[in-house]
C-alpha cells in the first residue's frame, strides 16, 4: 500500500480504529473517545497494533482530548485517506 503525504501506512486493525475515531471526533463524543483509547492501548499491549499504528491513532486522540475536535477529525480523515492505494 502506498501512503500519502506524511501519514504512515497502518494495519487493517488500526484502520478500523481510525474509522471509529473519525465518527467519535466528528460527533465530539468524550465517553466513546475514552473507551476507544483504552481499546487501542490494550491492542497495542497485546501486539495487535504496531507502535506506528498506536502513535498515529494516539495523535488523533491527543488532539481530541485538548478539545480540538475539528483538528482531530481532520487528522483522522487524512490518516485514512493516506491508506488509499494510488
If you average the pLDDT, what whole number results?
A: 91
Number of domains: 1
What characterizes the major β-sheet? none
Query: Which parts are unreliable, with pLDDT below 50 for 5 consecutive residues or more?
Result: none
Elements, N to C (H/E): HHHH
* Count of helical regions: 4
- DSSP strand count: 0
Report the C-alpha radius of gyration, rounded. Answer: 12 Å
Helix content: 55-70%
Structural class: mainly alpha
Broad shape? globular
Q: What amount of the residues lies in strands?
A: under 5%
Q: Compute the separation of the termini in Å.
A: 8 Å
Structural commentary:
- There is one protein chain.
- By secondary structure, this protein is mostly helical.
- The chain has helices spanning 12-27, 30-45, 51-65, 69-81.
- The protein is globular and about 30 Å long.
- It has one domain (12-81).
- Helix content is 70%, strand content 0%.
Main attributes?
mainly alpha, 4 helices, 86 residues
Compact overview of the structure:
By secondary structure, the protein is mainly alpha-helical. Helices cover 70% and strands 0% of the residues. It has one domain.
What's the layout of helices and strands?
Layout: H1 12-27, H2 30-45, H3 51-65, H4 69-81
Amino acid at each position: 500500500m502506498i501512503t500519502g503525504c506524511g501519514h504512515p501506512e497502518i494495519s487493517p486493525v488500526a484502520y478500523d480504529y481510525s474509522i471509529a475515531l473519525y465518527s467519535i471526533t466528528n460527533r465530539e463524543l468524550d465517553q466513546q473517545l475514552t473507551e476507544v483509547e483504552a481499546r487501542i492501548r490494550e491492542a497495542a499491549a497485546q501486539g495487535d497494533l504496531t507502535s506506528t499504528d498506536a502513535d498515529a491513532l494516539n495523535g488523533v486522540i491527543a488532539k481530541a482530548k485538548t478539545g480540538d475536535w475539528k483538528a482531530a477529525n481532520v487528522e483522522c480523515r487524512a490518516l485514512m485517506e493516506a491508506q488509499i492505494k494510488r
